[in-house]
Specification:
single chain, 320 residues, TIM Barrel, 6-stranded parallel sheet, 3-stranded parallel sheet, 9 helices
Length: 320
């Protein structure tokens, strides 16, 4: 198994996702062409692609991906507030964790194409080796987070900086007070380093729900990012935006489909699976309590299943 794809599962999982995405994209492409023939103006679309590390041995692959990106989409900034141009596909590029390998290998390639990007930095780890991955076999175990001096030296027209909490914390397991503290203090810390407002935030592990999104808004962020691979910026004032995981080791077709938004069939499937799981647990619990009597889930339980959904990966040792 490719080391940078440990986070997404084995080759079989990737092939299945790719196959469904290809079918989804083909059907959507045909539907769009039929709408054009009918004289319908197609709306602009956008995806946010997020990377983690870009090691030196994969720089050429990353460069090739940016060549594909420039042919297939129009780059935009992750804080874009302008309506998307009709009929045009857009893309924003972001990096979780702000690793030095990204600064060394990815940012120069982006600058060559004039592609803007955002680094989401955990403020408590600036200039230090990451501390949230404890598995020494993990490919990112030895990665270093960029230091404060280098962070503030980047061309602000091409590189923006967002928060990734102080300690790369899974906010979903913290108290509301502690979660708000991570959100607020990381923002303050980065603003002190940069000398300008920090308005973007990416949830570590993608762990986000409505309560956490509201806390992020309370902390003063203008936009936050999850790891749900859905189309982004459909509304100029969108607060919670999805993003799609990419890697320099993605297969060529795999990367192209992610770039084109073909993986946004996945969130509805995950929601259905989550809600079905909750309802089955409730059903099993009620059945056990009532002996052999079977009770279908109530409407209130069905409604609650949608409210308790928590996005993201299952825990801090398995980073998306």
């Amino acid at each position: 198994m490719n080391e940078l794809h440990r986070k997404t599962g084995g080759t079989g999982t990737r092939v299945i996702k790719l196959a469904f995405s290809l079918i989804f994209y083909s059907g959507n492409w045909l539907w769009c062409r039929l709408r054009e023939l009918a004289g319908t103006e197609l709306p602009g679309t956008c995806v946010v692609l997020y990377y983690h590390a870009v090691p030196s041995q994969y720089r050429s692959r990353f460069a090739n991906q940016m060549n594909v990106l420039m042919r297939c989409a129009r780059p935009v900034k992750s804080d874009n507030r302008q309506p998307l141009e009709s009929g045009v596909h857009h893309v924003a590029v972001v990096f979780h964790d702000a690793f030095v390998s990204v600064c060394d290998n990815a940012l120069p390639e982006l600058a060559r194409h004039n592609i803007p990007s955002t680094l989401f930095a955990p403020s408590g780890y600036l200039g230090r080796r990451q501390g949230w991955i404890t598995d020494k076999e993990h490919p990112d175990y030895g990665e270093i987070v960029v230091d404060a001096e280098r962070l503030k030296s980047f061309n602000r027209d091409l590189v923006s900086v967002g928060s990734h909490t102080i300690t790369h914390a899974d906010l979903s397991i913290l108290t509301e007070k502690d979660a708000l503290d991570e959100l607020e203090r990381s923002k303050i810390d980065l603003e002190a380093v940069l000398g300008r407002p920090v308005q973007l935030f990416a949830f570590p592990y993608g762990r986000c729900n409505e309560s956490l999104a509201n806390l992020a808004k309370q902390a003063g962020y203008q936009r936050v990012f999850t790891i749900k691979p859905q189309l982004a910026f459909s509304e100029p004032d969108e607060f919670v935006s999805g993003s799609c995981s990419v890697s320099p080791t993605d297969w060529n077709l795999e990367f192209r489909l992610k770039l084109l938004g073909a993986y946004h069939w996945m969130p509805p499937i995950y929601r259905f699976r989550h809600r079905t799981g909750l309802l089955l647990k409730s059903w099993a619990s009620r059945t056990k309590q009532n002996g052999l009597e079977v009770n279908a889930p109530s409407p209130d339980e069905t409604k609650a299943a949608g409210k308790t959904e928590l996005e993201g990966s299952p825990g801090p040792q398995v980073r998306p």
